Amino acid sequence: MFSFLVKKLNHILKSSKRPDESNNTEDAPKLISKSLLSNVEMMKKILGESSDIKYHDFLFGDKSQYAGLLVYIEGLADSKVITEGILTPILVHKNELFSEGEEMSIGSLKRTIICSGDILESGLQNEVVNACLSGKIVMFIEGAERALLISAKGWETRAVSEPQTESVVRGPREGFTENIRTNTSLIRRKIKSPLLRMEHMTLGKKTSTAINILYLEGVAKDEVLQILRQRLKNIDVDSILDAGYIEEYIEDDPRSIFSTVGYSEKPDVIAAKMLEGRIAIVVDGSPFVLTVPMLFIESFQTAEDYYVRPFYASLVRFLRLIAYLLSIFTVPTFITLTTYHQEFIPTTLLFTIANAREGTPFPVLIEALIMVFSFEILREAGLRLPRPVGQSISIVGALVMGDAAVAAGLVGAPIVIMVALSAVAGFTIPTQADSISIIRVAMMLIAAFLGGFGLAMGFIIMLIHLGKIKSFGVHYFGGLAPDYNQQDNFIRLSLLSMKKRPMNIVGEDVIRRGEINNEQDTGSGQ
Amino acid sequence: MKKLVKAVAVTMICALLTALTFTLSGCWDARELDTLAMVTGVGIDAIEGSDELLFSFQIGKVQQAAGGSSTQAEEKKPFAVMQVEEQGLMYAIKRLRNKTSRQLLLHHNQVLIISREVAERGVLAFLDAFVRERQMRTEIWVIVADGRADELLSEEMDQEKISGLGISIMLDDLIKISEVYDVQLQRFISNVISETSEPIAPVIKLIKRENSTEFSVDSFVIFKEGKAVGEFGIPLSRGVSWIKDYLKVFTVELPSEEGFATVEMSNFHNKMKADFTPEGAPLIKLNLKCDFEILEIQGFKGWNKEEISFHLEQVASKMIVDETNAIVDYCQSLDSDIFGFGTEYHKRHQKKWKTMKENWSEHFANLTMEVDAKASFIDEGKISDVLENTREKEREKK
Amino acid sequence: MNIETAKISPKYFVFSVICFIHSSSLLVSFFNTLVEQDSWMIVVFGTLCTIPLLLLYSWLANRFQGKNLMEMTTEIFGTAIGKMFSALYLWFFITLTALNLLDLTTFVQKSMMTTTPSIVIALVFLFVCSLSVRGGLFSITKYGPFVAILASSILIIATILSINLVEPDNLLPLFDFPHMKYMQATHIAASIPFGELIAFLMISGNVKIEPKKFKKIFIWGLLLGCLNLLILILRDTMVLGNTAKLFSIASFEVLRLINISDALSRMEVLSAVVLIMQLFFKVSFLYYISALGAAQLFNLSSFKPLIYGIGLVVIVYTYGLYDSSLKHVKMAMSVTPFFWMLFEFVIPIIMLVTALARKKQVKLPLQEDYNI
Predict the structure, then answer these.
(1) Which range marks the domain in which residue B341 is found?
(2) Do A6 and B165 touch (CB under 8 A)?
(3) pLDDT higher than 70, residue B25
(4) Which domains does chain C have, with CATH numbers?
(5) In this structure, what CATH number is given to the domain that contains residue B387?
(6) Fewer Cβ close by (within 10 Å): the C or N end of chain B?
């Protein structure tokens, strides 16, 4: 039994480390053959006999002397491209195809005949198969060593709509969709600079997910780019179904509670982050785009802060910070004060709380844990259940958890209020919501164990952990030290004052805006 | 291997901590609120023919609010008084654990009520526990009860059910008038341990009427060497306030033969100088300035406004001088320096103090006061003439 | 060789010094009983007496650029005697760690949790310190500015709230005690809270500053830290008057008296929390340099394996130091100042003289990334 536990722990520890250099044992790449028949057999062997894979062979040339084969997946390839872009030029105009004496070649087909803007050539089997699976049309020609891969992507995608997770009152409402090309085009529309670079990668052995890395040349730090490329290359998994998978593989410390990779669903947010020197990672199939490196303070910043006036934005940001602290520390402080340090509560308040606690059977910690877990269950249930049932559950939850429990004498009213306050406060910072739940429970346990001293120790442990985390070489948490560039940390000063990009993230291109010459402006005023 | 050992150690510590948290929540320092009895007042009475004292603890009881209707709970008294006979406070508290189901929580104690008998016997001995014990705070009020202390603790006040809290709120309010009521334990102790000063404490009387009981604060007790030796009432207490510059804003009556006025005095400036007469006896020079505002005038037939205000200024200044001299005389007769004159001399005349220290009683008996008071009239309210004289003035005009 | 390669900016160094001195507000009780209402003068005198000490340390840091205390002794005296002196200093730093841990344990036990066994408090505290030490120099000094500014703000807020309780007359009479008491008290103040700044010589090679300017940041740190201590003592004396010498922790009693309204009363919890954070800073710093010193003494390449070992040694040592707090105070008032003088004054003077006599020095080339 003990050795079983030991083995399990060993396994968990080993497997949570980031994988090192993967061994590259590549066999010699297989080539396609010149014969159409053997190519068909090869495709059928690799892809199987699925009913959505179509094979269409055709003859072309003025005397129909050339044979060709189209392989495509119905539903992925746009049939319009097949008819108008490929078959029409080849079959209909077959008499004008090749002038006297000119040899038919893949090259001439590609460049002069087929009407499509994105055609690649390939002679490798795995490239051909991957292209077919990605939605391209593969064209084999009898006697040619290479096949043509014609891009014809035409599948159903979701339209660009307002993102569900980040809504704003004032600001653009576009959100990313699941199509990688739409997403990158949305970003391109925001940053029309020639410095915007895009690098492509394919990850996932079975899913072959396309990943694009976007950055601004000169603004993003080179070292971070190198580290990112290296880590992405080292990902050796079966499937990348969502951006969240990649997040864990590229983080500095995947075992930490705090996530060091940011994400967003809105193009303007991503564009703003890229302009500060971060690198965006777009994953095909996910409307969430990742940004690295991420700092702790980013959880408290939203896009709307920059579209509204600075004073109000500073106030709201400060409010978020207070909400974060409240969310974590309200319930543990309450437990500490009522259990260990009753002297720190004013007398009349103490009598009120004592009144409420009289006759309740459980100690404060157990009550708090019951309420916190009930709230988590309620929240999770609210996410999973279908819409029509949603209304009744919320009413039942509020009534049962709140009123009835207090009236029945199971829990005291102050605890319900505290837990409700702390839970709602946690929602002001959506990116940290998961870490807040864990930290809150941990603090509750520590506070119940050692009182005020324990709470102080818990706070210190949290600070130490925050101080040690690095996100791609950049310190995660600034340490609340006074610094020059504080225009955007816990308050947001006017945009006029943000002259430089954040020094710890940016590469060389530091100046964000030039000097605004106000002297010329006095004409209109007076 | 090292990682493995560390992982095992961490897991075991976490499991242990979790288990401890759930099981040992009743141990060590954690005390649930419903296992505590919150003391709101401590009373000390004398016991005939014995050295022991009767300690009374007023414990604020909580109403059962959780579950059920709370209409029946209002019948019961919201507090209980527990009593123990012992020589020292701390042992009394320990003995009380055999009598009640809850531990005492002294952190919220508001008052310390000493009965007059105990005050006359001497308070220094048991005060040690009140300063030494961690749960005791030095912001509690020290009060002498006219009669028995446990009576004060057992009665309900009109507005506050729990008298300990009520007395504390009442004294808090009285401080806004004059800080002479500010007899927190901090100041009491400060005077007790100083070389020459003596503390005072207010006296609370219980006045029983048919429907209610009144708690009234209208006199003060003077201590000497920890024993209560004298008492003075409200008018004399104003003298203390003049000398020590305790007053903030307060209302006073100014009776005189020609008429009667009520004024509100504010903006006090008090300069006290500790000096010596040419013969070497101590002489205290007081220079008092204040402003007053007329709240009510009765009488003063035939006087106009300027004459009234001038006359009132004279009356007020004379009142200040008289009260000051009266209280100093009274204290000299008891040989109890409640004003801190000794400390003043210590602070200002360090070298001479070394010789004066030993026979301060003599010096204090020879002490004379030179009081220079000036009350200035600043405002008169909404009307300028005396209302009852207005009709005559109207008649005289025609 | 110096095994700590991290370089902190001088801003963090200054704030570390400030935090270090702040946490000595508990040690005020050592000389409070001697001079009562003149304790604030002792802080001023103590600061003035410490400044020459700091100049001496800065001279040493400048003379041996990039080296820390243990390397300096090896450079000056040669390997054998140098290692002996290093061992002495190692003992000194471990003792300081244990003493401060004892301070914290007694403080927490007395004021907050009376029945919890002190071993639990000490173990938990030292465990959290070890988490900080494992992160190296960056991790330890990272929160210096935050703690220092938080402590100063709370001090200022509490002082403002207690202004109505303040009676400046309580500071008189001045110089009421015989001169010898003042000298004794100044000696205590200069050696116990302020002289322990010699611990910062262990990281003198790790600050991103021109070595010539080291004394500037060192003295700035001392002055700012002492300013806080001065305000604290002045406020306590002026509020409590002659009862200040009765209480073991005077600032608590002052904060208990603040009662603006029912909500703004009972504020000593703020003071307790801040004191715990400051003591955490001091203990983790001393712990760190003990581990660093031990690693250097035994020629290891990293101090990380030694952390838990030193921690256990410190805990056991704490319980063996004094039988009771009465003895602690008695020793602190009579014997400890002289003993500490040996480490803080005598040995550095010997180092100075020997370095000049043997003409030893180490100079580093100037680097560009200095901040001041």
Answers:
(1) 249-398
(2) no
(3) no
(4) 10-358 (1.20.1740.10)
(5) 3.30.300.210
(6) C
Residue spans of the domains in chain A: they are 36-150, 180-294, 310-474
Write the ipTM. 0.90
Contacts of B350 in chain C (CB under 8 A): 173-176
Give C238: exposed, middle or buried? Use CB within 10 Å, 0-12, 13-18, 19+. Answer: buried
Residues B83 and B222 in one domain: yes
Residue A281 has a pLDDT of: 92
pLDDT of residue A25: 43
Are B222 and B335 within one domain? no
B47 and B105, same structural domain?
yes
Whether residue B26 is contained in a domain is answered as no
Residue B241 inside a domain? The answer is: no
B51 & B80 share domain = yes
pLDDT of residue C129: 92
Q: Helices (DSSP H) in B140-209: which residue ranges?
A: 149-154, 163-175, 185-193
pLDDT(B71) > 70: no
At C176-201, the pLDDT tens digits run 788 888 888 888 888 888 888 888 88
Sign of the alpha-carbon dihedral angle for B70, B72, B77, B79: negative
Q: Are residues B229 and B253 in the same domain?
A: no
The pLDDT tens digits for B269-305 are 888 888 888 777 788 888 888 888 888 888 777 777 7
Nearest CA in chain C to A461: C128
Interface contact flag, C276 A453, Cβ < 8 Å: yes
> Is B198 in the same domain as B119?
yes
| B320 falls within a domain | yes
Residue C292, exposed/middle/buried by CB under 10 A (0-12, 13-18, 19+)? buried
Shared domain for B162 and B310, answered yes or no, is no
Backbone angles phi, psi at A173, to 5 degrees: -115, 15
Pull the structure tokens for residue C23: 């946490």
What's the token pair of residue A220?
A: 């993003």
Interface of B with A (CB under 8 A): 3-4, 7-8, 11, 17-18, 20-22, 25-26, 29-34, 36, 38, 40, 60, 62-67, 105, 107-108, 110, 135, 137, 165
Q: Which residues of chain A neighbour B3 with C-beta distances below 8 Å? A: 13
Compute, in degrees rounded to 10, the torsion defined by CA atoms A309, A310, A313, A315: -120
Return the pLDDT at A16: 55
Q: Buried b / exposed e across B285-312, counting CB within 10 Å, b at 16+?
A: ebebebbbbbeebebbeebeeeebbebb
- Please write the tens of the pLDDT for every residue from A477-508: 876 666 655 555 556 665 666 666 666 666 65
For residues A17-24, give the mean pLDDT. Answer: 46
Confidence at residue C282, expressed as pLDDT on a 0 to 100 scale: 92
Instruction: Report the domain count for chain B.
Output: 2
Q: Do A344 and C266 touch (CB under 8 A)?
A: yes
pLDDT, tens digit, 9 for 90 and up, residues C318-345: 988 888 888 888 888 888 889 888 888 8
C-beta of residue B177 within 8 angstroms of C-beta of residue B116: no
Residue where a domain stops, chosen among B182, B198, B233: B233
State residue A204 phi and psi, 5-degree precision.
90, 115
pLDDT of residue A524: 40
- Residues B193 and B85 placed together within one structural domain of the fold: yes
Please report all neighbours of A, defined by 3+ CB atom pairs within 8 A: B, C
Q: What residues have CB less than 8 Å from B302, skipping those under 6 apart?
A: B389, B392
For residue range A282-310, what is the model confidence (pLDDT) as tens digits? 998 888 999 988 888 888 888 777 888 88
- Measured in angstroms, the CA of B337 and the nearest CA of chain C are apart by 17
Q: Which of B201, B233, B265 is the last residue of a domain?
A: B233
Q: Which of A93, A451, B94 is nearest to A443 (CA)?
A: A451
Q: Who wins on pLDDT, A12 or C278?
A: C278
pTM: predicted TM-score of the whole model, two decimal places: 0.84
- With CA atoms as reference, report the closest residue to B350 among A202, C177, C154, A194: C177
Between A423 and B359, name the one with better pLDDT: A423
- Whole-number Å distance between alpha carbons of A369 and A362: 11
